[in-house]
Design a protein that fits this description.
Elements: H1 6-57, H2 62-66, H3 68-75, E1 82-87, E2 93-96, E3 122-126, E4 129-139, E5 147-155, H4 157-192, H5 194-205, H6 225-271, H7 277-308, E6 317-320, H8 321-331, H9 333-339, E7 342-346, E8 350-353, H10 355-371, E9 378-386, E10 389-397, H11 430-440, E11 444-450, E12 453-461
Parallel strand pairs: 7-9
Antiparallel strand pairs: 1-2, 1-5, 3-4, 4-5, 6-8, 9-10, 10-12, 11-12
């Protein structure tokens, strides 16, 4: 099932929220208008009660009491929508105006003494007409009838008609407003999400040949700027990875092409004419050297592939780094003598790890340092304790490596001087393998070069208690 778009979701959320607000406001407006009319009717009823009270206060004799209905008719002239009914305390009807329409039974007395300013009112319907009224007790000046029950009612048909029309118009307006806000919400969501569509367009156009494209972070809203920056960073990493992969593929093809071409050329020359067994043996020895070179490259590549996938799991034993360095010095003795350089070491330290793997890593650094040390120079190895581990530094004099090359020295097949690729005798994988071994042991490796001296520093975790050497 296809999920709704973000634009539709925002539109629905905006429309629902605005509709809820409009409904609440409409309800409050309707209640306020209705309360306003009730208050108007309350004030009018209070005024009419005061009119009746004033009229009855003037009744002092029996004759005046008998003439009271006429006086009430005169007082109510010009109020056709007003109804008044006067009754004795025992319920006998004393007066009822022509337009009086009250419930069949007396409604409770609402206006007591001391509450004249805030009477409660009652609403009822009689036929198709609606009324609102109140009832109270009013004193007279006639001793024979000191108290009279007064019921006052007003017709509210015009109020009801106005409220019906107003409420109908109000809800129609609310419905139209909800639809309008939903439409405006859709437009706003579409415009607000336009940067996302631009990001999608850029992302869709990305390919291996267009990894240089970037999103314009400065033109995006603050909410999307971090996402765009992260996307640009990802593209930069991909571009760098693709470039390195391309360089790696080219270097790998070159590393394989040269030995294979040598083998093929030597074989073709050997087969071009008949040769002696000794000549064939020399050709086979030369081909064997090239095959061994290919085998070493393939072996190194397999090791790096395993390291990249975390499949290099070193065994754990106690390793005396100083002893390993001394043994490596003996191994490289002939190479050192040939190069005309010297070796020196100082310090001690022990770590836990795979002896053969760490020996290979240190050996790679030593062979690299010896190869780049000018005649008469000295390669020094220092071992010392470091915070949380052991530091091993291999330092040699020679040409200073430019700073832009330092971060890439541990890349596969990378050389500072490509012209030395053939003469160096290696495939350019030694430092990459060294880094993989160090990382597999939980350590770090770095390089620094300045003032005619280059130093590779390895920091490995210190040896733990309970592990002995083998």
């Amino acid at each position: 099932m296809r999920r709704p778009s973000l634009t539709l979701r925002l539109t629905l959320l905006f429309g629902t929220a605005s509709t809820a607000v409009l409904v609440v406001l409409g309800y409050l407006v309707g209640m306020s208008v209705q309360a306003h009319f009730v208050e108007m009717d309350r004030e009018e009823l209070l005024g009419k009660v005061q009119l009746v009270r004033h009229t009855l206060a003037k009744v002092r004799t029996g004759a005046e009491f008998a003439a009271m209905p006429g006086r009430m008719d005169d007082a109510l002239i010009g109020h056709p929508h007003l109804g008044v009914r006067l009754s004795a305390p025992d319920g006998d009807l004393l007066y009822a105006s022509a337009d009086a329409s009250f419930p069949a039974e007396d409604f409770p007395m609402r206006l007591a003494e001391g509450m004249q300013r805030s009477p409660d009112i009652t609403t009822w319907r009689h036929g198709s007409h609606a009324f609102r009224g109140t009832m109270t007790t009013v004193p007279t000046g006639y001793p024979g009838m000191p108290l009279v029950n007064v019921a006052v009612a007003v017709s509210i048909d015009h109020h009801v008609a106005f409220l019906d029309a107003f409420i109908r118009s109000l809800w129609i307006s609310i419905a139209a407003g909800a639809l309008l806000t939903a439409a405006l919400g859709w437009i706003a969501a579409r415009r607000g999400l336009s940067p996302v569509r631009e990001m999608t367009a850029v992302a869709s156009s990305i390919s291996a040949s267009r990894l240089h494209d970037r999103l314009r972070v400065e033109s995006l809203p603050p909410e999307l700027s971090p996402l765009a920056a992260a996307f640009n960073d990802m593209l930069a990493r991909l571009e760098d990875s693709f470039r390195r992969l391309s360089d790696f593929s080219s270097d790998l093809a070159h590393e394989f092409k040269t030995p294979l071409s040598n083998v093929m050329t030597q074989t073709e020359v050997a087969l071009s004419r008949s040769r002696s067994p000794e000549e064939y043996r020399e050709v086979l020895y030369s081909s064997l050297e090239e095959c061994e070179r290919l085998a070493r490259t393939v072996s190194d590549m397999l090791f790096l592939a395993k390291a990249d996938h975390g499949q290099v799991i070193p065994s754990v034993e106690r390793i005396d780094l100083a002893r390993e360095v001394r043994e490596l010095f003996e191994f490289y003795d002939a190479f050192v003598e040939e190069r005309g350089v010297s070796l020196a070491s100082r310090g001690e330290g022990s770590v836990d790890g795979d002896r053969l793997m760490l020996r290979r890593a240190i050996g790679n650094l030593l062979s690299n340092a010896i190869a780049h040390t000018p005649p008469g120079g000295r390669v020094s190895v220092s071992i010392a304790q470091a915070p949380g581990g052991v530091r091993l530094v291999v330092e040699n004099p020679g040409e200073t490596i430019p700073p832009q090359h330092l971060p890439r020295l541990f890349d596969r097949f990378y050389r500072v001087d490509p012209a030395r690729q053939r003469s160096s005798g290696g495939a350019g994988l030694g430092l990459a393998i060294t880094r993989s071994i160090v990382v597999a042991h939980g350590g770090t490796i770095s390089v620094a070069s300045a003032d005619g001296s280059t130093a590779f520093e390895i920091v490995l975790p210190a040896a733990r208690e309970g592990i002995s050497g083998m």
